[in-house]
């Protein structure tokens, strides 16, 4: 019997989940959140990085750039279904260097002059994972190549693609996000019964968390898996061809050890 | 002297104000006397490298009954065998020059390398892996280079590792020591007899060390995290065990039990790992489903509730190359670059990571085949013309290591069948010199294997590739000098 679903408000259709039962269950959930799906993983493709605009004439000594650091869905979908909160640890010279973003989109804008490493800690909803995850991003304000002059129109953009992997996720989580575009859920094993999905919180109450209409969207990098796969396939072909050639040469040498030279022709 | 002096700023009003401001509220340590403030600030409060002497000490007069002069006097050095006489300045007190040996002569230590007779060799020292000539040569080199085995290994004509050489040297010394002693108990306390050299352990130790040293900060951090997590799990399991006395119903126990095996797997795995980092995180070999070595996720990952795909890839790359040496890993990465593939995928999806791992695995196969082929070729050639004193089988000393090591150099390079033939012709044409040159070259440079690799790249990456231009020994010498300088 699955017990994992956390109903914060309402929406559970199981008869036994009255409030008191749930509360007592939740205390146990801290240790083990329901039934876990073995040999199964759910992943969330994300992109994290920063966009930095040079302020040009408005730049002062300590505030030469305005930048935004963020964690977004790889296709700009709302990460709020998985991530509850993001904490950005800024350089200690900022006021309140620990910035907490409680709702999506998980982004933070600041002004400054220096580059430094930002630690982004992601906290997940309680049915997803009780452990936080750290991302490390080196804030970039100045363009890499000297030839590229600083302009106020074109920002410096540095983004990394990655995937958050949840091995052996709880069935409640899988049920909840099964059809959500932000999450990669592989085909479920046959005969698996998921509990009916339960909303973490009211959808209507939340503001939109996706980054599709963000003013920064035009600067976002496009990450193409297909390109990467093609490149790898080409490389593998080359290596395999070479392996085959070497094998031929080896057999030739083995075949005529007393001969003067092995000439594979 | 101060920056303000240089700038010609007034010394009073402003600097004082600045000094006051820049001084931290509470000074952690007082600046020692005798160091100027500016110099002390540069050290950032860290203890200075040079001992500071109080200036007043320097001005102290020597005792008045001593009359100190410095004189240019000849001296002999007992460490020299040629009785060369040199001069130096000597502190002479009251007209009496210091007597005794040259003070630095005592630093000329030499090693007592045992000498064995032919008879002793026959009786105690024969070894199927070593010939008498080789052993003689080894002991000769040991004497010459004072047991600097890295240098000896470089000079040694046949491909022996440092550990093999040490092993032979120490086992021979030990055998002689024991054989010459009238009673075995006489030498029982001798370090050579007490602690025999363990070549296998040494090799293992070096491999583990290079593994640890080549870890990145991030990996270390992750390791620490994983260990902390393992500890936490262990603690919670202890708690759970204590709690089982109080029966709990339903899923709770079940879930705990389900988690136990994997957690304990990972826990022991991690313990192993810290003890022997080179073995990384090979998935538990006992598990029958861990057959597809690369595809399975290392146990240390499985115990994490959440991780990044890039982290998983790093771990799996490390696990896959745990058996390979640092040099091989470097070569894999070099090959990846030559192929135009990112060392770390830009879009690390599951499929991309799997492909990436496969590619690395194939490159490893490729490199192994290359090594085999080189070895076979060398074997063949030494069979053909037996005049070769040193078999060129070792890739590190090998004359043509370069073009074989990098099959995917961006510029087009033919791997036609004539390659082998050409090289053979060339080797016949200029017989020993190039080999000899390479050999000496690598000796002068390198102690470490990677450097051998670097050298071969430096030597063979040049504009005139070996496969194109038949270079004479003279041009090679020129190139060598250039690289040397």
UniProtKB/TrEMBL annotation, chain A:
Residues 1-26 are annotated as: Disordered. Residues 17-26 have a biased composition (Polar residues). GO terms for biological process: regulation of DNA-templated transcription. This is YEATS domain-containing protein. GO terms for cellular component: nucleus. The lineage of its organism: Eukaryota, Viridiplantae, Streptophyta, Embryophyta, Tracheophyta. Pfam families: YEATS. It is found in: Nucleus. PANTHER family: PROTEIN AF-9 HOMOLOG. It comes from Carnegiea gigantea. Keywords: Nucleus, Transcription, Transcription regulation. Residues 36-180 form the YEATS domain. InterPro entries: YEAST_sf (IPR038704), YEATS (IPR005033), YEATS_dom (IPR055129).
Automatic annotation (TrEMBL), chain B:
Transmembrane segments: none annotated. SMART domains: SANT (SM00717). InterPro entries: DAMP1_SANT-like, DMAP1, Homeodomain-like_sf, SANT/Myb, Swc4/Dmap1. Its main location: nucleus. One of its GO terms (biological process) is negative regulation of transcription by RNA polymerase II. It is found in: Nucleus. GO terms for cellular component: NuA4 histone acetyltransferase complex; Swr1 complex. GO terms for molecular function: transcription corepressor activity. SUPFAM superfamilies: Homeodomain-like. Keywords: Chromatin regulator, Nucleus, Transcription, Transcription regulation. Residues 476-485 have a biased composition (Basic residues). Residues 126-175 form the Myb-like domain. Residues 1-37, 237-290, 378-426, 466-485 are annotated as: Disordered. Residues 280-290 have a biased composition (Low complexity). Residues 18-36, 237-254 have a biased composition (Basic and acidic residues). This is Myb-like domain-containing protein. It comes from Carnegiea gigantea.
């Amino acid at each position: 019997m699955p017990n994992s679903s956390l109903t914060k408000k309402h929406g559970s259709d199981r008869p036994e989940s009255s409030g008191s039962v749930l509360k007592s269950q939740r205390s146990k959930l801290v240790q083990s959140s329901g039934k876990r799906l073995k040999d199964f993983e759910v992943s969330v493709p994300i992109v994290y990085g920063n966009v930095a605009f040079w302020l040009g004439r408005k730049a002062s000594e300590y505030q030469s750039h305005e930048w935004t650091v963020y964690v977004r869905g790889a296709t700009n979908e709302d990460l709020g279904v998985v991530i509850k909160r993001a904490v950005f640890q800024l350089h200690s010279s900022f006021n309140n260097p620990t910035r907490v973003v409680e709702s999506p989109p998980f982004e933070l804008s600041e002004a400054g002059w220096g580059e430094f490493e930002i630690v982004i800690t992601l906290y997940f909803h309680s049915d997803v994972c009780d452990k936080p995850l750290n991302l490390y991003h080196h804030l970039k304000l100045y363009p890499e190549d000297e030839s590229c002059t600083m302009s106020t129109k074109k920002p410096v953009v540095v983004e990394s693609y990655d995937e958050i992997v949840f091995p052996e996720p709880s069935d409640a989580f899988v049920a909840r996000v099964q059809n959500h575009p932000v999450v990669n859920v592989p085909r479920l094993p046959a005969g698996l019964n998921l509990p009916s999905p339960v909303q973490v919180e009211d959808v209507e109450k939340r503001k939109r968390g996706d980054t599709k209409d963000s003013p920064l969207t035009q600067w976002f990098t496009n990450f193409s898996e297909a390109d990467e796969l093609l490149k790898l396939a080409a490389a593998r072909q080359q290596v395999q061809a070479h392996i085959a050639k070497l094998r031929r040469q080896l057999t030739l040498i083995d075949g005529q050890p007393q001969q003067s030279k092995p000439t594979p022709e | 002297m101060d920056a303000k002096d240089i700038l010609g700023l007034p010394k009073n009003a402003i600097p004082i104000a600045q000094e006051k401001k820049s001084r931290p509220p509470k000074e952690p340590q007082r600046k020692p006397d005798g160091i100027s403030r500016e110099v002390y600030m540069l050290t950032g409060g860290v203890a200075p490298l040079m001992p500071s002497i109080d200036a007043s000490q320097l001005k102290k007069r020597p005792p008045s009954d001593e009359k100190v002069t410095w004189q240019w006097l000849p001296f002999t050095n007992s460490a020299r065998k040629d009785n060369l006489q040199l001069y130096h300045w000597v502190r002479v007190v009251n007209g009496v020059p210091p007597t005794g040996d040259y003070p630095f002569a005592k630093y000329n230590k030499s090693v007592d390398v045992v000498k064995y007779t032919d008879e002793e060799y026959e009786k105690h020292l024969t070894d199927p892996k070593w010939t008498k000539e080789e052993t003689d040569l080894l002991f000769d080199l040991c004497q010459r280079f004072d047991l600097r085995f890295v240098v000896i290994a470089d000079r040694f004509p046949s491909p022996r590792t440092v550990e093999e050489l040490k092993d032979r040297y120490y086992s021979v010394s030990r055998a002689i020591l024991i054989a010459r002693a009238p009673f075995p108990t006489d030498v029982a306390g001798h370090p050579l007899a007490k602690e025999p050299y363990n070549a296998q352990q040494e090799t293992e130790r070096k491999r583990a060390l290079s593994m640890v040293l080549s870890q990145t900060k991030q990996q270390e951090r992750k390791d620490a995290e994983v260990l902390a997590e393992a500890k936490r799990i262990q603690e919670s399991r202890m708690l759970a065990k204590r709690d089982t006395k109080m029966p709990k119903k339903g899923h709770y126990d079940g879930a705990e039990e389900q988690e136990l095996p994997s957690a304990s797997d990972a826990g022991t795995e991690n313990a192993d790992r810290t003890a022997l980092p080179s073995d990384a995180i090979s998935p538990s070999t006992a598990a029958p489903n861990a057959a597809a070595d690369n595809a399975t996720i290392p146990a240390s990952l499985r115990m994490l509730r959440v991780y990044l795909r890039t982290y998983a890839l790093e771990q799996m790359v490390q696990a896959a190359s745990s058996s390979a040496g640092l040099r091989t890993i470097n070569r894999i990465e070099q090959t990846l670059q030559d192929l135009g593939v990112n060392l770390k995928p830009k879009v690390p999806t599951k499929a991309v990571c799997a492909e990436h791992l496969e590619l690395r695995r194939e490159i490893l196969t490729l490199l192994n085949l290359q090594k085999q082929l080189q070895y076979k070729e060398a074997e063949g050639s030494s069979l053909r013309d037996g005049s070769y004193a040193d078999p060129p089988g070792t890739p590190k000393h090998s004359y043509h290591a370069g073009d074989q090591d990098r099959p995917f150099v961006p510029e087009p390079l033919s791997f036609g069948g004539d390659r082998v033939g050409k090289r053979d012709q060339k080797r016949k044409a200029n017989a020993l010199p190039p080999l000899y040159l390479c050999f000496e070259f690598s000796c002068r440079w390198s102690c470490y294997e990677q450097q051998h690799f670097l050298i071969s790249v430096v030597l063979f990456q040049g504009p005139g590739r070996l496969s194109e231009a038949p270079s004479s020994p003279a041009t090679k010498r020129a190139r060598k000098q250039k690289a040397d300088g």
